[in-house]
Amino acid sequence: MQWIEGKIVENIHWTENLFSLKITADIDNFTAGQFTSLALDINGERVARPYSYLNAPGQQPLEFFFYTATNGVLSNALVRLNSGASVWVRKEANGFFTLDEVPAAQDLWMLATGTGIAPFFSMLSTDTPWQRFAHIILVHAVRTAADLRYQELIAQYAQQYPSRFSFQSFVSREQVANSLAGRIPIAVQNGSLEQAVAHKFHPEQSHVMLCGNPDMVKETVEILRQRGLRKNRRRTPGHITVENYW
Ligand SMILES: Cc1cc2nc3c(=O)[nH]c(=O)nc-3n(C[C@H](O)[C@H](O)[C@H](O)COP(=O)(O)OP(=O)(O)OC[C@H]3O[C@@H](n4cnc5c(N)ncnc54)[C@H](O)[C@@H]3O)c2cc1C
């Protein structure tokens, strides 16, 4: 594994526990949806964790979207970095949560909790999903309205592809206009997500990518299975591709 020294260009504090880092680093190219590792030397030990690229491949500075985990060692150190500070970035990217692993489908669903939306922004900022899928539905579940970040990117996709892109937010702890209340799995089960975006989960037309909280991923996959969708595997292509953040 090769570590290279990255430099912080900007640290954007969105809320009490959400922030983004923009970093310049001479990394190898990656495929949208992949992750790298970031690390800091803390008390003489290199503490590393995986983080998804939010920026599109080839873009500089690199961008990452973080949650400061309660008592989390690395996230609580990263949040304190100012511009000019150094951070270790793993040169090679990793992971199979990419569109080249996804078979042909009519509709591509991207279901995310919290910072799990990052790899979807990377994918949506490339041409690939727009060339391959007739309709793309991005779903973001958060706790409060203030957690709905990167709305300007979402507005950009909506403006560029008005009839082919839908966005649906979920806010669990507040009532917010145009957002659904509660959690993704329940809304998949009771049909309220499908109703809100006017698209159906169906094995003949859908591919569903899920990223973030492992409970959301597990519960939603179970419900989608009952609807006839199967996990996507290299040997047996299916309809569901997942990335768990912990
Ligand atoms: C493939 C992959 C990609 C990832 N990409 C991102 C990313 O883009 N942004 C990001 O913030 N994290 C991401 N993570 C999680 C990240 O690697 C760390 O686990 C996280 O930053 C916490 O590290 P820590 O040292 O601060 O906390 P630790 O002491 O390691 O605590 C870990 C605990 O924090 C909680 N937790 C971890 N990540 C999150 C999260 N994102 N949101 C809410 N709670 C969390 C869980 O309860 C977990 O058990 C990713 C994980 C994986 C496996």
Task: Write structural notes for this entry.
- The protein is of the alpha/beta class and 246 residues long.
- It folds into two domains: 3-90, Beta Barrel (Elongation Factor Tu (Ef-tu), domain 3), CATH 2.40.30.10; 99-244, Rossmann fold.
- It has seven helices and twelve strands.
- It has helices at residues 73-78, 118-124, 128-132, 151-160, 184-189, 192-197, 214-226; strands at 3-15, 18-24, 35-42, 45-52, 62-67, 86-90, 107-113, 135-142, 165-171, 179-181, 206-212, 240-244.
- Strands 4-3-6-1-2-5 form a six-stranded antiparallel beta sheet. Strands 10-9-8-7-11-12 form a six-stranded parallel beta sheet, sandwiched between helices.
- A hairpin with a 2-residue loop joins β1 (3-15) and β2.
- The longest helix is centred in the C-terminal third of the chain and has 13 residues, at 214-226.
- It starts with a strand and ends with a strand.
- The model has no long low-confidence stretch (mean pLDDT 97).
- Bound molecules: flavin-adenine dinucleotide.
Structural topology:
Blueprint: E1 3-15, E2 18-24, E3 35-42, E4 45-52, E5 62-67, H1 73-78, E6 86-90, E7 107-113, H2 118-124, H3 128-132, E8 135-142, H4 151-160, E9 165-171, E10 179-181, H5 184-189, H6 192-197, E11 206-212, H7 214-226, E12 240-244
Parallel strand pairs: 7-8, 7-11, 8-9, 9-10, 11-12
Antiparallel strand pairs: 1-2, 1-6, 2-5, 3-4, 3-6
Bound molecules: flavin-adenine dinucleotide (FAD).
Descriptive terms for the model:
246 residues; alpha/beta; Elongation Factor Tu (Ef-tu), domain 3; 2 domains; six-stranded antiparallel beta sheet; 7 helices; globular; binds flavin-adenine dinucleotide
